[in-house]
Amino acid sequence: MNIGIAYVTPVHKVWLRMEMPDDSTVRDAIERSGILGQFPEIDLEHQKVGVFGKIAKLDAPLAEGDRVEIYRPITADPDLVERKDQEEE
């Protein structure tokens, strides 16, 4: 099946398309993509992952056309950061 892997940093945007066996999981796709070698800061034990914007477990099965996303940790408390639209007023 054809799936995608997405990961974004402040400097890089990575979008990989790849073929995976039909019984693949989120973890299988991430490991096979090679993205962990490109970005050693990715820690799957602590970072959240998802499929099409919905949080998913690493052992979740994938379907044809799925987009696996690796989310970066939050670095600022959203309750303490003023919203951009409030700053523009």
UniProtKB/TrEMBL annotation:
Entries under SUPFAM superfamilies matching the protein: MoaD/ThiS
NCBIfam families on file: PRK01777.1
InterPro entries: Mopterin_synth/thiamin_S_b, RnfH, RnfH_sf
Family of the protein in this entry: Belongs to the UPF0125 (RnfH) family.
Gene3D superfamilies: RnfH-like
Name of the protein in its database record: UPF0125 protein CH339_16710
